[in-house]
Amino acid sequence: MHSPEAGDEDARMYRTYILVLITEFLVITALWLFERAFS
Amino acid sequence: MRTLDWAVLVAYLVWIVYDGLRRTKAAEHIEGYFLANRSLPWWAVGLSVMATQLSAITLVGTTGQAYADGMRFVQFYFGLPIAMVILSMTLVPFFYRAKVYTAYEYLERRFDVKTRTLASLLFLCSRTMSTGVIISAPAVILSIVFKWNLPLTILAIGGPTVLYTMFGGVQAVTWTDVKQMVLVVGGLTCVVVALILGLPHDVSIGRALHVAGTAGRLNAVDFHFDLQQPYTFWSGLLGGLFLQLSYFGCDQSQVQRYLSAKSLDQARSSLLLTGFVKIPLQVLVVMTGVLVFVFYLFNQPPMLFNTENTAAIDQSARAGEYHALEQRFSTAFEQRRDAAIALAEAPEPDRAAARDRFRTSNRDLVDIRRQAGDIVSDVTGKTEYRQATGDTPKPDVNYVFPTFVTTRLPQGLVGLIIAAIFAAAMSASAGELSATSTATVIDVYRRLLRTDQSDRHYLIASRFATALWGVVACGVAYFAVQLGSLIEVVNRFGSIFYGSLLGVFVLALVFKRANGTGAFVGLLAGLATVVTFAFHPRTRNVSYLWHNPLGVIVVVVVGAIVSVLTTPKRQPVKG
Q: How far is CA A28 from CA A25, B72, B236, B507, in A?
């Protein structure tokens, strides 16, 4: 059975997963904008 | 290399071996040796994971590739953050909670011993060859650039690595990886600063990047869908996703890292750190290559960076023609430099004309380089000089970065960067050595040969296995040089193996009815299909990144069908 602490830990992990994906989207967008700005 | 450079390099080697050996006390039991007693913090594991992946081939080859062909290689990593999230949610909890030493141990629990053994042996074959190449590639380059003795250079990289991995186990590998990672990133940052400071005073970095963009060097994101282009947004995101899932989820050199973390959440956090940092880190690597290109727009580069054929050309009948070409190259360089300065300084209305002038002068320079490559090919018989990566002869690419470092950086910094190249090779090969030793002892020796021995016995066997694989890797490194094209064979072999192996783990997790026979037959079918696909004349030009999803699909489909066909039907209960 999950303890309340484990539930908090899972929620923190899910937030981190979303943050990783958002960061990737931002990095790829920044690279694309960088390419367009200097080409 | 001058005295201060030698001092920096020797100090690095002595310090890293000392740092590795002082971890020996923590590796006196097999769990300490292979898994660091599951005690490592997430950030150290995360940095170690990245250090194992960032070899000297990446450092030297990728910067050279960016010099010749721009930033497109960074797309190779677009699937990585998604893979890290998927693995943190799926395989990592399975492995961590199963308390296994190797990823393949899990396959026996789920299927049978033959599937585990086949997977482990595939890993061992692939990694032994690749560890040899990890050591040989920088050794060859450094021996040519510095005229060092090749076997001694291989020993200088491989010897200390084997020593600290053999005695300190995964503790030594992880903590030395952390320091080596800092050295590599610090070294690259110093190079970037030196490159920016090396620009002409009247050319700003922004203007210089405009020139690089005009030369097609800032091509970081390519949305075209083309199966034959090795690096596009789609091949990186989809093909790369399967490759990274397989590499981080099924390759013991990575699995072993996060199994040594303090807790499951720390194991997940270490992978997520990789997800955050890996693409920006690769941007730093490719941007270094682009800045080297920018530097050589304003400072004359050699006509060919790889000098190994200079003596042969000087002694050949075509020496005069080659030296005349060098004169033409100098003139063409001056014209391109003037065109680059004009483009950098051009106001907006004049920029189109300045761009055309720059492109024409750049084409002239590239054409002279191609002719030089043709002469080298005719004189030496090396046909690869007629092939190009971007606009640079293929064998020249790996020599761009070392040539810049050794001829343009100040004393001391040269030693630091050479130490960083050593560090990249050592951290990548130490991780592989530790993993091959674990798979040998846990999956083969302890499981099949000597099943009931003491912890001490297995520890000694593990150290012996590490030393043995180290010697084999150095031997492969030496012969890889003689065979030349082996590097390509190893890369293709890796992509054949990874997709199929991931397929077995997907089968294990997703299909409850999958059985050992299905998994074993599926794995063989996946390997056979990908081998055929990789070498068949009609399909061999398809980018190797697509081999990974193909392997997964074949293993899962064949494995599921065979499992259904071989599962005995339940007898109806007679009432």
A: 5, 12, 12, 32
ipTM: 0.89
Q: Are A16 and B275 a contacting pair, CB within 8 Å? A: no
* Inter-CA distances, B498 with B305, B529, B571, Å: 34, 13, 39
Contact B218 A34 (CB under 8 A): yes
Within 10 Å of residue B524's Cβ, how many Cβ atoms? Answer: 14
Cβ-based burial of B380 (10 A; exposed 0-12, middle 13-18, buried ≥19): middle
With tokens 């003139």, the residue in question is B331
Shortest Cα–Cα distance, B379 to chain A (Å): 39
Residues of A in contact with B85 (CB under 8 A): 17, 20-21
* Residues A31, B280: C-beta atoms closer than 8 Å: no
pLDDT at B240 over 50: yes
Phi, psi of B484 (to 5 degrees): 70, -70
d(CA B358, CA B347) in angstroms, rounded, equals: 15
Chain B residues with CB under 8 Å of A39 CB are 213-214, 218
pLDDT at B542: 83
How many other C-beta atoms can be found within 10 angstroms of the C-beta atom of residue B400?
Answer: 26
Confidence band (pLDDT; 50, 70, 90) for B345?
A: confident
DSSP reduced 3-state for B364: helix
Strands B388-389 and B392-393: antiparallel
Reported pTM? 0.87
Q: Do B84 and A20 touch (CB under 8 A)?
A: yes
Helix, strand, coil % in chain B, rounded to nearest 5: 80, 0, 20
How many CA atoms does the CB half-sphere of B318 hold within 13 Å?
17
Q: Is B340 exposed, middle or buried (0-12, 13-18, 19+ CB in 10 A)?
A: buried
Give CA separation, B447 vs B114, B256, B530, in Å: 11, 18, 29
Q: How far apart are CA B205 and CA B233, in angstroms?
A: 27
Q: What gap in Å lies between CA B575 and CA B564, rounded to an integer?
A: 27
Report the distance separating Cα B499 and Cα B503, nearest Å: 6
> Cα B144 to chain center, whole Å?
21
Residue B243 phi, psi (nearest 5): -65, -45
What is chain B's alpha carbon radius of gyration, rounded to the nearest angstrom?
Answer: 25
Which of A9, A13, A15, A29 would best serve as a mutation to test chain B binding (most B beta carbons within 10 A)?
A13
